[in-house]
Design brief:
This protein is an alpha/beta fold. It has 14 helices and 21 strands. It folds into three domains: 2-187 and 331-395, 3-Layer(bba) Sandwich (FAD/NAD(P)-binding domain); 228-326, Flavocytochrome C3, Chain A, domain 1; 404-485, Methane Monooxygenase Hydroxylase, Chain G, domain 1 (Up-down Bundle). It has helices at 17-25, 57-66, 74-82, 84-93, 127-141, 204-211, 241-245, 271-283, 298-301, 303-310, 368-385, 410-422, 428-445, 449-467; strands at 2-6, 11-13, 29-33, 47-48, 119-120, 145-149, 151-158, 161-169, 172-177, 181-183, 216-217, 222-229, 249-251, 289-291, 321-330, 333-335, 347-349, 354-355, 394-397, 492-493, 500-503. The strands form six sheets. Strands 6-3-2-10-17 form a five-stranded parallel sheet, with helices on both faces.
Length: 505
Amino acid sequence: MTTIIRLDAPIVVGAGVAGLSVALGLERAFVISSKEPGSTWWAQGGIAAALGEDDSPQAHAADTVAVSGGLAVEDAVAALTMGGREAITRLVRLGAEFDRDDQGELLLGREGGHHARRVVHADGDATGAEVMRALNDAVTSAETVDVIDGKVVELARVGERVVGVLTADGKRRTVYTAPAVVMATGGAGRMFKATTNPVGVTGDGIMIAARAGARLADLEFVQFHPTAMNAGKDPMPLLTEALRGEGAKLVDGSGRRFMDQYHSLAELAPRDIVARAIYWQYDRGSSAYLDARSIVNFHERFPTVTAHAMSVGLDPTEDRLPVSPAAHYYMGGIDADTYGRTSVPGLWAVGECSSTGVHGANRLASNSLLEGLVFGARVAVDVSAHQIENDGGIEVPKEGLDLPLVAGPVIEELRQLMWDRVGLIRTGSGLWEARKSILEMEPVLGRTIAGRNAADLGLLMVMAALRRSESRGGHYRADYPEEDPMQAMRALVVPGAEDTVRVGR
């Protein structure tokens, strides 16, 4: 039984920083949110914005481009950095409380890849939680936004145009139609065994869009955060970049620093370089720790990290914290312009599920929350101007009506495979092994919606990594360790749309 509910305002799929920024910018909106909190809640890092007297959006843009592996789209970067000040101002108006000095001025921190202090934080290392508190409070008090609990599993279409979504609750299916649909479903970190991402951040939204014919981009570029706490937890607790910005050092088991061997900025080098340096520590039989004992008032300044450490019996003021890289942020996703427009009429994408090229092959620290805020506002403007009422028979992908939702234990085998073969260090032979193994798992994974999404995205990631026979940003091929100027371009993928069935009249 499939119920059809017609809504008179745009649908936003996802309730993180990007999705709620879109919804609050619209005259009227419906937000469809699953019960699983997304990555924004977990974000310890801050929001980068050129607020200091010695800083500018152009300098912020230069740093963003510098770490992008030569692939950042300049128009997107300019839109991001020029929108920083307004994004912070808007959050403050909504009631977000950021860390300030004794004179009431915003405290600006410095993180890896930045050449200026331009990162605002909330409660030291709880910026994401504070941003979500402010946005949720605004949504709760807004009469213009309705939140619908639901798990979106497919997009609904009339011809080539997206006109709504299909949600699932057990065996019950509901189609919600609307004059526009915005995907804001987050990244894909849970594709990997070692990750900082919470349950549910599996790239489902990317594959849902792909099945509706949306073009994808940059699928090989995964950012691995260098300093996740290596303490046997899943997800791995993040040790924020701000710690290194405030003087924490990376050391081996003997207490010796090692980052100065790899980059002139040492601990403040771009994330991909720091992550690989730590990986190589383990690869040669050594270990890696973050020594933050020099940071004064640590417990007060970094309460989230303190809680994570204390939960495994460590005190950051007395102990070095074991660290390891972990999948953190996805630069790939649904190809979109700076207003979130995708290749499919009626469909927009924003935040981590999108790929505007703003990060290129490697994201600058603390640009992710900024991306959701800035591009969320821009998407709202564009959606407001391009809503269309639709008539005609609604079509949805056939399997979305029948398959159960949750993947079985084989999904953990896939996550381990992706970490081992498609993780931080890749090789051609390892990638071909991954492709073979995923194809062998596919008949089992394909029995559920979550499993099918994971298998399909895993294969697309593998093939994208195979095609890029060089190393660039978050994509490192040990068999092609250098950048190839001939490959300094974004890679686009056009998946084939699936068979559909008509629902309703």
